[in-house]
Amino acid sequence: MENINNKSVEWHKAIKAIEVPENGGVAVLIEGKQIAIFNFTVKGEWYACQNLCPHKQEMALARGLIGDLNGEPKIACPFHKKSFSLESGACLNDDLCNIDVYPVKIEEDFVYIGL
Fold it and tell me: What CATH number does residue 11 fall under?
């Protein structure tokens, strides 16, 4: 266990880093949760969030388009183009539900997700 932002985090080995496309995402299953992992190469950062789109209730965010809004990294759902912050999980278009985001670290060429 590790503390991040006053929350206890348990790290889970998710996938080899090389298996995540540059400037793209993949979905993994950890502890029964589908999690989208993004290799935001342009920013040199990694992000993770729930894969479930809160609007359509479909597992789709890993297939969304990554980008940024005024410097804030975001993911846009491939179905309705609603955008969510990859840092806070907030919906950036309107008052649609927020999404869960997770800490990410890379160690020995593997991606780890903190739950």
Answer: 2.102.10.10
